[in-house]
Amino acid sequence: MRTLLATFTAALLTTPVLAQDGGGPAQAEPVRAPDTIGTIVSLGIGLVAVIALIYGCAWIIRRMNGMTGMNNNAIKVVSVMAVGARERIALIEVGGQQILLGITPSAIRTLHVFDEPVVDAGNPASGDFARRLQSMIGKSWTSPTRNE
């Protein structure tokens, strides 16, 4: 039974199909089976090309990030303290000199440049820095007293 069905299917696929062309003579065109191996190969090549493109773009982006001059040896953030919701005070070290910066969403301002380092950048003493910073904030931001 199976051999009969297989023979019938093979005969249908190989039999030419008669096409009518507006009343003209009948033309025989063979029915073609889809080329599955060719389709799989072209899909595989397309997939490999897309994956290679993704890796290539990632490589280019990594190379471009390296060119921006990300040299963290010149500037070191020694300490940062939040003053408000979006305001901070940061102590940075540049070229062996420590600078106190006020950072807001719209500006960055130099609050003080220290003559001698407040905190060793390698080993920050948080209590010492906090006391010194608090004394500076108290001195510079309090309103002057009036002498009458």
Number of distinct helices: 3
Mean pLDDT: 75
User: What's the N-to-C terminus distance?
Assistant: 121 Å
Structural class of the secondary elements? alpha+beta
Name the overall outline: rod-shaped
How many E-type strands? Answer: 6
Strand order of the largest sheet: 3-4-5-6
- Give the helices and strands as they follow along the chain: HEEHEEEEH
Gyration radius from CA atoms, angstroms: 39 Å
Strand content: 15-25%
Tell me the helix content.
40-55%
Number of domains: 2
- Report the sheet with the most strands, covering strand number, pairing sense and barrel closure: 4 strands, antiparallel
Low-confidence stretches: none
General description of the model:
With 148 residues, the protein is of the alpha+beta class. It has 2 domains: 6-66, no CATH class; 75-141, no CATH class. It is built from 3 helices and 6 strands; from the N terminus they run H-E-E-H-E-E-E-E-H. The chain has helices at 2-14, 36-66, 126-141; strands spanning 17-19, 27-29, 75-82, 88-94, 97-103, 108-113. Strands 3-4-5-6 form a 4-stranded antiparallel β-sheet, with no helix packed on it. It is rod-shaped and about 100 Å long. It starts with a helix and ends in a 7-residue tail after the last helix. The relative contact order is 0.07.
